[in-house]
Structure of Inositol 2-dehydrogenase:
Amino acid sequence: MSTNDLRVGVVGAGMMGADHIKRINATIAGATVSAVVEPDEQRRAAALATAPGAEGYGRLEDALDADALDAVLIATPGKFHTPVLLPALAAGLPILCEKPLTQDPESSWEVLEAEQATGRRLIQVGFMRRFDPEYAALRELIAAGSAGDLLMLHCAHRNASVPDSYIQPMLINDSVVHEFDVVPWLAGGSIVNVEVRAGKRNSLTPDRLREPILVLMELDNGVIVDVEMNVSIQFGYQVATEAVFEKGVARIGQPGGLQLWQDGAFRIGEHADFTTRFATAYDRQVQAWVDAARQGGIDGPSAWDGYKVAVACQAGVKALESSGPIAVELPPTPDFYA
Ligand SMILES: NC(=O)c1ccc[n+]([C@@H]2O[C@H](COP(=O)([O-])OP(=O)(O)OC[C@H]3O[C@@H](n4cnc5c(N)ncnc54)[C@H](O)[C@@H]3O)[C@@H](O)[C@H]2O)c1
Ligand SMILES: O[C@H]1[C@H](O)[C@@H](O)[C@H](O)[C@@H](O)[C@H]1O
């Protein structure tokens, strides 16, 4: 650790938090994990074993009292983001908050108000797809217009399987949440409505879920988008987009692993889960945040972006339970985020 390093407190040392702790100490320049905040003693001890020099705490407030950190990375489950965001904001610290910002628009609005009260934009939301090189290339192509105007996006979001804790609304709040952020960022418009269609159920889907689903979005610039959301596809993890332009078609997220010709067949390796598919995106996201946090700011999706996604998710969950499109209605952008 260099004395100039940003001292990062990681809150929540489950799957994602443990991954970020390793990333910060092994890959990221200018930062060290100085505090691990995790109520579960076993998980805290396991994380501390990978973070030499870090201190362990059960609550963020205790780490703040000990002046143990300069910035906070939040990796608690979404329903426990607000109780961590509010004290971190009150302490005036830069924050990287894993998606979603919070579970609903009301609590996200409360967080926006708390951030505005600090007078600074301190929250970056972990919509890491914006840092994926392929998404960035597609966004540049769309903005350049060299293939003509963008007309449609076909998105596929496929998980091999999901844990027992994954319930029906999470198809939207935990998974399509990524498309609700990245699609407007790619296509340069706002979501005006969301519709969900559920067709034939996968017999391999856990009993508590009804999927795959098709999520349709209309943007205010006329672009329409479909997302196949699928969490029982078995073969691996695949997040792909096909963009249809006036004069061409572009694809991202195609399998890019080992190519193997054997036994009269041709195979290409595919990802098993998001940790490898988005490894570069997570690294770039955390490095951008550390660089900005060292200057006291953020460099990525803002709390306002998180709020807009919370409104889209609320419409998406309603659409899961009804038929036809549900409007996505946003209040005017507060001056602070304009
Ligand atoms: N960007 C991505 O691709 C991606 C992938 C997976 C998860 N996530 C997000 O990361 C976050 C964590 O997900 P996960 O799968 O690692 O969850 P997890 O359940 O594996 O781990 C969460 C940890 O937080 C701890 N925790 C709960 N409340 C706490 C509190 N108040 N203070 C400190 N620790 C607390 C729990 O004990 C647990 O160890 C979620 O917001 C999730 O949506 C993002
Ligand atoms: O929490 C995870 C994560 O956000 C992944 O990026 C997404 O593909 C999964 O569907 C979701 O369950």
In short: Residues 255 and 270 are 5 Å apart (CA to CA). The pocket of 1,2,3,4,5,6-hexahydroxy-cyclohexane (ligand 2) is lined by residues 159, 174-175, 178, 274 (CB under 6 Å).
